[in-house]
Each structure stands twice: as structure tokens, then as C-alpha cells.
Amino acid sequence: MSDNLFTLLGRKALVVGCDSGIGLACARAIAAAGASLVMSGLEKERGEALAREIASDSGQSVHYRAVDVRDEASVEALVAAATGIMDGLDIAMNNAGIPGPAAAIQDLAARDFDNLFAINVRGAWLSMKYEIPAMLAAGQGGSIINLASTAALSGLAYVGAYSASKHAVAGLTKSAAIELAPHNIRVNAIAPGPVQTDLLHNMRAGRSQVSDVRPASVPMGRVAQPEEMAGTVVWLASQAASFVTGSIISVDGGVIAA
Ligand code: NAD
């Protein structure tokens, strides 16, 4: 074990879905902590520019690959490319997610439910489906970090399908953690409260159109910045979290406590 429990020096990390928001902030922090990095998402040109910027800031090898997590071949190709570029895979953060349209349970269209689950749940599962064999092949253990939400731990009115999708991510995370514990591959999720990103903006705008429901109150009295998720993610990726697996870790300014 390294003297610096929190370093990611020499580690090989993939972040799935990090064009913006939490994923982008965590990608920056993972590279800054010393890992080589493959970023991915839907915005190839912008993503490649961001990868160059993060490589220059961190001094690490950083690449970007396009992926749509709804497409199995695209996810398989991403993990193969990342494993090839970095000669292995130790850390995977599965971040891709959308809020879906705000609607009462009875008003949500089936195609919107299916699209939300295709990205938030099937996308996280597909990512793990290809990341796990890559980690097993290296035989060095690993750390997978999924994106749940406080909406994985309680309901959220007028975005019920989103809440259900995040409960599903929590279930996948805990089940994978049990399966992979003998191989020293740890699988956890973070459950952010409200974080200032496009997703939160769209979710709040949509909910205010369909109801007068107020945003859940945050004991700390503010929403988080995306960078405030990064410390927990780097910790989970590092040796400092060597006995942490199957946990859904709230990073929420006290939302769940309240
Ligand atoms: P965001 O919209 O800034 O980022 C979402 C990212 O998902 C995009 O950058 C994109 O790269 C990726 N993505 C979306 N659809 C994709 C697809 N089909 N294929 C590949 N990538 C795709 O929003 P964010 O708030 O940073 O969201 C990141 C994660 O955090 C999501 O899973 C979200 O559910 C979760 N989350 C966000 C909040 C919040 O308040 N912002 C709270 C709890 C959980």
C-alpha cells in the first residue's frame, strides 16, 4: 500500500459520460490525483479538446472516446479502446445519466420511461458488463463507482422514473459488489443531493411546470458544485477506501439525514 492513501498514481481510469457536470469535474480530479484517464461521452470534438486541456493540467495521459451508452457495441468498443490505450483498467466511473421529462407517474410516456432506463440503468449495467472482464483479466482488483442519487434512497415526486432508475443503479451496485468482492474489485455508488449542473436545471424547470412542488430542502442551505463530488469519488477509487464496497454514499449536504 502506498504512503499516500489517496493517490491514484499509476492507476488507469475510465469515466463513462463526462461531457459536463459531475463527470467532468471527477475526470479532472482523477487525472489530478495521478491516474491516466479515458473520458467518454456524446460530444466528440468538445470532449477531445477537454481531454487535451486535462492532460496539460495534470501531466497525465488523457484521451476521449465517443460513446452512447444506449448502444451495446459502442460501450464494448469504448472499454476495449480504453483498456488498449492504458494497457489495463483499474478504475471505472459510470456517470452517464439524464433526468427524463418531469411528469406524474400516470402521465409519463412509455418511450420516455424506456429511454431513461436505457441510459441510467441499462447504460450503467452495460458499462459494468464490459469493465468487469477487463478488470478481472488484469487480476489486480479495481474500483467501480456508479452514479446513484438521493433519489435512489427516497422518492422524488414528478420524476418517479428517474428515482426508480437510481434505485436500480443502487441494486446493481450492491449486487456487483457481492459478486466481485472475492476479486478485490470494489463497487460503490455516490448519492449526490442537488448539484449545480444542466441536469438539475432541467429537472427543476420540468418539475415546476407540472406541479408546485418545492425543491427538497438542503440542511446546508445550498446546492453543491460539481467539484464537491470529486473528493468522494477519488477516495472511493483509492486505496484509502480499500474495505469499502457495496456502499451507496450520500454526498448531499444533509438531505437524506433530514
Ligand atoms: P450533466 O447533464 O451535466 O451530465 C450528464 C452526462 O451524462 C453528460 O455530460 C453526458 O456525457 C452523459 N450522457 C448523457 N446521456 C448519455 C448517453 N446516451 N451516452 C453517453 N453519455 C451520456 O448532469 P450531471 O448532474 O453532472 O449528471 C451526472 C450524473 O449524476 C447523472 O447520472 C445524474 O443522474 C447524477 N446525479 C446528478 C444530480 C444533480 O443534482 N445534478 C444529483 C444526483 C445524481
Automatic annotation (TrEMBL):
Xref: Pfam families: adh_short_C2
Matches recorded under CDD domains: SDR_c
PROSITE patterns, per database record: ADH_SHORT
Stored InterPro entries: NAD(P)-bd_dom_sf, Sc_DH/Rdtase_CS, SDR_fam
Keywords assigned by UniProt, alphabetized: Oxidoreductase
Top-level lineage group: Bacteria
SUPFAM superfamilies (UniProt xref): NAD(P)-binding Rossmann-fold domains (SSF51735)
Keyword Zinc: no
Family named by the database record: Belongs to the short-chain dehydrogenases/reductases (SDR) family.
Name recorded for this polypeptide: Oxidoreductase
